Give the backbone structure.
Amino acid sequence: MWGWWRFGKWTVLIMFLHIIAILIFTKGFLLTRTELPHSSHCSDLSQSPCHSSPSSSSCWTKPAVDRLIIIVLDALRFDFVAPSSFFEEKQPWMDKLKVLQRMASENPSSAKIFKAIADPPTTSLQRLKGLTTGALPTFIDVGNSFGAPAIVEDNFINQLIQNGKRVVMMGDDTWTQLFPNHFNKSYPYPSFNVKDLNTVDNGCIEHLLPSLYQQDWDVLIAHFLGVDHAGHIHGVDSTPMIEKLEQYNAVLEKVIKELQNQSGPGKLHENSLLLVMGDHGQTLNGDHGGGSPEEVETSIFAMSFKDLPSLPSEFDSSSCEPSKNICISSIPQLDFAVTVSSLLGVPFPFGSIGRVNPELYALAVCTWNLDDDKTWNNQDQTKLEEWLQNYANVLCINSWQVKRYIDVYSASSVIGFSSEDLFRISDLYSKADENWSYTKNLSSYKNGSSNTSLPVLKRQIVAYSNFLSYVAELARSKWTEFNLKMMGTGIGIMLLSLYCHTLAIKKLNKSYGVSLLSSRDSGISFGLMLTFFMVLIRAGSLLSNSYILKEGKAANFLLATTGIMTLRYSFMKNKMLIEAAIFLLLTFIFRIAIEVGLYKQAATSQFMSSSSSWMLGISISQSLWTYMAEIMPILALIVLGYFLYKSIYSCCWGIPKYVIMGTILCYFLVALHWISESNILDLAHFLKGFGKNCIPRTVYAITLVQLSLLAIVPMFCKEETSNCRGSLFVKMMSILSACSSTIIILQGKQGALVALGSLLAGYCMMRLQGVEQHTVSGTAGISILDPLPVLQWSLLAVCLLFASGHWCAFDGLRYGAAFVGFDEFILIPQAILLTIDTFGFSNILSVFGLPLFVAFPSSFNQTEHKSLFPIKLFWIFMVYGLITAITAAATILCVTIQRRHLMVWGLFAPKFVFDVVGLILTDLLIFVASIYYFNGLEDRIGNAELRRLW
Amino acid sequence: MKELEKNPQSTISSSQVFFIHVCCGLALVAGFWVAHHVYSLNLVFDPTKTLCLIWAIEFPVVILLFSCCRQKPEKCSYFTAIARGLLGLPIGALLNALGALALGAPVGLQYLEKTVNWSLLMSSFTFVPTACVYGSSWTDWCRIFACTKPNGPLEFMLCLPAHGAVIGAWFGAWPMPLDWERPWQDWPICVSYGAMAGYVVGMVGSFGLALIMHTGRKQLKAE
C-alpha cells in the first residue's frame, strides 16, 4: 500500500478538488429561486388601490364559480385535443378526444380549447408546482422530483384551504406528496410504475363519477396518468396510446353529461366550471422534461355550464378554424393559478406572477351579451362596461399582488432583479396606477357617458396587461439567478485541480524518465501535440449548442482523425496496417451507430431537424432486418464468450478462472433472456414458469459475487507469479468480464454489439500503441509515454456512450434499463441500474480497461523495465483522468459563458450534469481501479525497489 | 512544355513551380468561372454539377503539367505518366471517399453523387500529381505522405498542396453541424471550400519554399 499511496494520494486529492469545485459551481449555477414563505390573506387587499369586493362573503374577487372540476391528463399533447385541421397532417392519435372538440364547436362561448404553454422543466412535479403557485419552478427541482417535497410556497390549493374550500383529489400520488395535509379526501395511486397503464386511471374513474353527485367538495382534482405512461412505454403513435385516449373520451363524455344534467338552476352544478388540462406535453417517443414545443405545448379545455356570450375582440387572441367553428387561443400556464383563484374568489398565491387570463376568465364571468361591436344596444353596453370594470378591477388586484411580490422578493433576495428592471417595473406600475385612480373616479359616476368610460377602461386593462406581461417576461428571462461568485470559485477550484493533475503527471513523467536514466530532450512529441490539439478542439466545441447536440459525431470525427494518423504511422513503419484499417472500419461502424442514435434523438429533440432518410429505408424493410436484429446480438455474445473462453484456456488459474466462467454462464443466460423476449423462437412459454425477472436478477447476483470475489480474495491469498504483465492482463480480463454481463443485459441487444466493437477497437489500439513513439524516439527500448492512445481510448469511450443509444439529455437516459429485472419502482436499485446503463461502457468499462496499454508488451519495445509498470499504469490513469477533467472543465466554462443562452436549460445544463456526474464517477473508478490493479503489483516488484524508484 | 521536359531531376526551378501552381490555380478559377458564367451553376445550389465541372477542368491541367515533371523520364514516357495520372484519379478518389466516410461524411444514395465528385476533386488535388510524378514507387509515396519528409522543391510541390487540401477539408468540416441553417453548410460544400483554400495555401507555401531553396542554392554556388 505504501507504493500505492505515493501516487494514489494524487487521485484522492484530485477527486476531492473535483467534488468541491463541482459542488460549489452547482450551487451557483443550478440555483433554486428563493422561495418566500409569505402567503396572501383576504385582509391584505385593503393596502391595494383597488376596489375590494362589495359582498362580505368574498375575499379578493367576487367568486364566479362555486365548484371547480379539474381533470388533469398527464402529458396531454396539444394535438390530442385540438382538431386535426389545425395541423398539417392528420396523425392517428389526433381527434380522439372528440367530446371536447364537439363541446368547443357547439358552445363556443361556454367551452373553449386553449393551447397552454408550459415553462420548462416539463416534469410532472415541476408543472404541478408551477400550476399551483403560479411561479416558475427552476431546474434544480428536477433533482427533487423523485423525493417530491411538499410545496412551501403559497399556492392556490393552500389558498383554497385557508378560505374554507374543500378539495378532493384522486389519481397521481404526487399531489398528496406536494400537499400532504390539504385534501379533505384523497384517493392517491402510486405513479412511478411506468409499465402500469391502468391502476391510476381506473382508480380515478372509480371515484370520479360518484363524486360528481356529492356535495362535500368545492374543488375536485382528478389526475390521470395513463397517457404519460403509455407514451413512456409505447410512444405516442401506438395502440395503447390510442386506446387510452379513447377511454378518456368516454370518461369525459360521461362527466360532461352528468354535469350538464345537473347544471339547471338550483342544481348541484349550476355554477360549476370544468377544466380538462394537461400538465405538459410529450415528444413522439413519450419523453418530456425539456423545452421543445412538443413538450411545452399542452392544452386546457374549459367549460362552464352557463350560457355565456363571447368576449370583445380586443382581448380575444384565438385563432379560428372557420370550417369547424372552433377557436383556439393560447394561454401561458403561468396564468393558471391566478385565473382560477380569481374565479373561485380566493386570494391570489403570494408568489404568482401570472395574469388573470381574460378569455378563461370570461368563460365563467360574463354579464353582457353582444355579438358585434356595431350592434350594441344600450343594455349590452352597460353590461360590457360592467364586465370591463370588473375585469379591470381584477387586473388591478392582480398587478398590485405581483408588484407586492416583486418588491418583497427584491428586498429579501440579494441578487434579484437589476435596479434598472425594478425601475422599469415601478414605472410601468405607477403609470397604470395613475390611470387607475382616474378610471376609478370615472366609474364612480355610474351614470356618466359610457362612450367615454369604455375606452378608458380598455386603456386601463391594456396598461395593467403591459405591466404584468413585462414582469412575466422579465421573470422568465432572469429568474435563474446565477451566483457568479460561487460559479467563479467553482471554476477556480476546477482549474486548480487541473493544475494539480498536470503536476502529478509531470512528477510521474519525471520518475519514469529518471528511473530510466535517460533524460528526454524536449519532452514534446508529435503525439503529445496532437493530443493537446484534439483535447482543445473538443473542449472548444462544447461552447456551441450544435456541437453538444452532435457530440457523438464530433467525438467520432476526432477519433477517426486519430485513426487516420495511426494509419499514417503504420504506413510509415509498414507494420500493423491491418489493425489500423480495422480500427478505421470500427470507427465507421460506431459512426453509423451514433447516427442511428442521433436519428432517435432527432425524433424527440426540439433542437434538431431529423434528416438521414436512408436509415428509414433500413428500418422499414421488414423481416430480414428484424431477424438480423434478433440474431446479431446473440451471435456477438457467442463471440464474446468464445474470446473469454480462449483467454481462460490459455492463461488462467484460480479465482479469475471461476470469475470468467461465471461471466460465460451470464452470457448464456443473457442470450436466453433475449431469445425468450423475442418471438423468433417460441420459447416464451418455455420460460414462463421461470419468470422473466429471474434471469436478470441471477445475472446481477452473479456479477455481485464475481466482484466481491475479485475484491476480497486477493487480500487473503497472494499468488506469486513472476509475470506481472500476465497477471495484470488476467486481472483486467476478470474484472471487465465481471462488469460486462450486467452492462450488456441492461443495455439490451445493442449492448452485446457495442461490447464486441469496443473489444475489437481496444485490441487494435493496444496493437497500434507505440507505432508512433518508436519512430519519434528512434532509439529502441525506451518507451516514451505517449498520450495519444489514451486520448483515443477516451474518445472511444465518448463514442460508445453515444453509439449505445444515449445522449446527454434527460430523455437520453434509457429508463427502460431501470426496469430490467424489476417490475416495481424501488428508488435505490433502479437509480443504480440506470447509472450502470448510462455510464457502463463510457466510464466503468473504459476505466477498468485502461491497463490494456500496459498489460500487453508493446510490440515495439520488448525490453521494458519491469519496475516501471506501476508508474506507467498510474500515468495512464492520470492522463485519462486529466482528459476527462479537461472536458468537464470546458463544459463548466462553456455553461458559464452560455448561461443566458436560449438553450441553457434544454442543452447546456443537462450536458453539464452528465459531464459532472461522469467526471466524479471517473475519479471514483480510477481510485478503485488503481487500488485494484496496484494491489499485488507492488508485491511482485518489491517494495524496496519501489522506494528506490520514488 | 518542352522546356519543362528538359528538366529530368527532381530539382526544378522556382519559375517552373510558379508556372505549375499558377496553372493549377487558374484551372480552379476557370472551373468556377465556367460553372458560373457558362452553365450558371453555383457550388452552393448545385454542388454536384459544379464540383464535376471543377474537377473536369482541374484534373487534365494537373495531369498534363505534372506529367512533365515525371521521375526518370528516360524510362517513362510522357504518355505513361499521363496514363498513371488517369489511373491514379479513381484510386485517389476511392481513398479520399473512404477517409471522408470514416470521418463522418453522410452515407446514402442521395449523397453518392456529391461524394463521388468531391472525392474526384480531392483526388486531383492530392493523389494525381504524385501519381504522375512517381507512379507506383512505394518508397517515394511513403516519404512524401506518410513521413512527410519531402526534399527538394518538386516534392514540396507535391506534398504541401496535397496536405493543405486535406487539412483544409478537415477544418472545412467543422461548420457543418452548426445550426446556422445556411445552404453552404451541407456536405460537401464547405468541405470543398476548405479543401480549395487549403490547396491554394499549400501552393503558395510550396512556391515560397521553392523560392527560398532557390536563393539558398544560388548563395551556395556564389560562395
Observations:
- Residues 189-222 of chain B form the longest helix (34 residues).
- The radius of gyration of chain B is 18 Å.
- Chain B touches chain A at residues 99, 101-104, 106-110, 142, 145-147, 170, 173, 177-179 (CB under 8 Å).
- Residues 1-9 of chain B have pLDDT under 50 and may be disordered.
